[in-house]
């Protein structure tokens, strides 16, 4: 059997939240609640929570319905763990975990547990420091320490429960973690790979980092654009920013239905109105305007509203021109204008409607946009 002891009795002074750290809110839940998610998703049979003295009732309400027992923690970590071990049998595996490491993946619990079962030793997860480490004397550097010889230790720390209990009971010093007390009693402690997500929340910055990791992905928004123009013999054909042979399309601007549909879709996705309200026929300055310009201006309007295109798809509907031979060229031009991938396809309506009768060309576009990343450049 495997029991997880979750140490949640710390006062969180350095966090400055005015309450025990385990009860501090994180993305709408307490640190303890998030920590228990990881514990209970692992191969753990029971949980014992060492709660802040005086807040046992609050913690019990928080774990109602879970396979968890709550005990009052002690004045320090060793006392809290010993109090929790009163509910753990000597022949069980115990995983001691800090509630202040709320995002520790279940896989770390399972890895530690498996190694304890395999070896009978103490097992701790750890990471090799990424930064260069210096040993100091006052403010002077004495030497550079080899990182390969160092480990940043995390939790859960796993042990045979009876051996850990005896080590803590016989400890003649206060240790900063359970593995130190276990090793001081003459036991071997092994190291397994930890996780960057198992960082400890000590300061406000740590809490903010956890909030960012738990934040939902930026919500995407979609928009739809449709444009139709009839053929006109006295104008060149502009479609998707390219010039084509044959008669063009009638309109106030260049009547590029592909670009107009894309611009409409982008504006729609950003909640910015439509092509008519932004660049309508009542504006003399838009006469003869290139459709590609409408696209780039719509992208700029999106940026002002805090959005950026993610993907655009446009379908050309009509008997002519046949776009297949120039699809790649059109996609490249439109992708450059939009700043994100644009896919182009073509179809006909089997002789039905304006396009089927060969009277004009239509285009239908969909756009996906997302909140634009914040730039910190000056």
Automatic annotation (TrEMBL):
Site-annotated residues for Transition state stabilizer: 14, 21, 252, 348
GO MF: 2-C-methyl-D-erythritol 4-phosphate cytidylyltransferase activity
EC numbers, comma separated: 4.6.1.12, 2.7.7.60
Cofactor binding description: Binds 1 divalent metal cation per subunit.
Coiled coil (residue ranges): none
Gene3D superfamilies on file: 2-C-methyl-D-erythritol 2,4-cyclodiphosphate synthase, Spore Coat Polysaccharide Biosynthesis Protein SpsA, Chain A
Cofactor(s) in the UniProt record: a divalent metal cation
Residues bound to a divalent metal cation: 227, 229, 260
This protein's pathway: Isoprenoid biosynthesis; isopentenyl diphosphate biosynthesis via DXP pathway; isopentenyl diphosphate from 1-deoxy-D-xylulose 5-phosphate: step 2/6; Isoprenoid biosynthesis; isopentenyl diphosphate biosynthesis via DXP pathway; isopentenyl diphosphate from 1-deoxy-D-xylulose 5-phosphate: step 4/6
Record field: catalytic activity: 2-C-methyl-D-erythritol 4-phosphate + CTP + H(+) = 4-CDP-2-C-methyl-D-erythritol + diphosphate; 4-CDP-2-C-methyl-D-erythritol 2-phosphate = 2-C-methyl-D-erythritol 2,4-cyclic diphosphate + CMP
Site positions for Positions MEP for the nucleophilic attack: 147, 200
Ubl conjugation among keywords: no
Residue ranges of every copy of the 2-C-methyl-D-erythritol 2,4-cyclodiphosphate synthase domain listed in the record: 221-369
Keywords: Isoprene biosynthesis, Lyase, Metal-binding, Multifunctional enzyme, Nucleotidyltransferase, Transferase
Annotated binding of 4-CDP-2-C-methyl-D-erythritol 2-phosphate, by residue: 227-229, 252-253, 274-276, 347-350, 357
Role of this protein: Catalyzes the formation of 4-diphosphocytidyl-2-C-methyl-D-erythritol from CTP and 2-C-methyl-D-erythritol 4-phosphate (MEP).
NCBIfam families per UniProt: ispD, ispF
Family label: Belongs to the IspF family. Belongs to the IspD/TarI cytidylyltransferase family. IspD subfamily.
Protein name: Multifunctional fusion protein
Organism in which the protein naturally occurs: Amnibacterium endophyticum
